[in-house]
Amino acid sequence: HGTASAEVMDYLGLDEPEKDIVLSLVPGALVAPLLADLTLALGFSRPGKGIAFTVPLSGISAAANRQTDGGRVRAEINVERVPPMTENNQLELIISVVEHGMADDVMAAAKTAGARGGTVARARGLSSEEAEKFLHITIQPEKDVVLILTAAAQKQSIMKAICNEAFARTGERGIAFSVPVSDVTGLDLAR
Q: At what angle do helices 103-112 and 152-161 cross, to 10 degrees?
């Protein structure tokens, strides 16, 4: 779910609408036209409709490489409809993995340092020392993954705020890291 405030939704007592996160491997030559088609088809040029971005890979399995580079991926993308992407705006994706229920603390801390919003995804930890046995069933603790897309210049202050405010208050029960973002569409960087 998104974390940006929605006054009308709050007034009506409605919860934030659910969002989908789609991950995909895409050959570099298809990135710009694919982002252009996503922008047009899903309305990313309108505020609140979504964001698409790319993250460079530092490694890939042989099977994934065969599927993306070996000609098995077919896409019909209209290259002529390419709107301008960010012109190498230095962007970062801050990823915080915290215990379920801590996402609001992370976002509150991040917003004090200038973050405008983020997305929270539910996850499940697989660390064997955290697993509990209950009625002969292994229970894995639920996690929240908080994704914040921000300008690289704000990354350090946002991460410090998350660590100093949210993690310090909760006994450092989470991790935060960032990865560079190559291209983005649907994000109003002027605000």
A: 130
